[in-house]
Amino acid sequence: MYGLIGKVRAMPGQRDALVEILLEGTAGMPGCQSYVIAKDPTDTDGIWITEVWDSADSHKASLSLPAVQEAIARARPLIAGFDQRIETEPVGGHGLPA
Amino acid sequence: MYGLIGKVRAMPGQRDALVEILLEGTAGMPGCQSYVIAKDPTDTDGIWITEVWDSADSHKASLSLPAVQEAIARARPLIAGFDQRIETEPVGGHGLPA
Question: Which residues form a coiled coil (chains A, B) (predicted)?
Fold first, then answer.
């Protein structure tokens, strides 16, 4: 499995709008086992995204999906920057597909 | 919802043993929507744990469950420290219970 933990910083006041785009754009991605969008309670502009994919290739391929491309295009103007990007190797746990 | 993103550092050489304890100890926790255990590919002792709970209270209550208490007791000697602990407010995404 392939995992990502990332912190995205929204433009001031744009976090909720950015969260909505992320929620809409991340359904039905092949190979995506988990994709959780969370607000940072200590940073009014911060969004944490935690992802689990069956492989790094599935993640890479998702970036070319039309729905994802469209979400990226809408999200880009609302993004101020990326504060953290951590790659992981998920090994299991609760809540992943069997 | 209530989320946690944490990095645990295992004692040298003990990461796999610690991962096994975490995998065993985290089944059947009421209110737990997701609990993913991942190795850090850049740190041979590092483990990332990402959690989604229906509430902070459910997370707190889980720490008193006999199976979790037993896992904590077995895990403690294998833990060198905690490098990060981030609380989040998950808002949705893919892979959470409907």
Answer: none
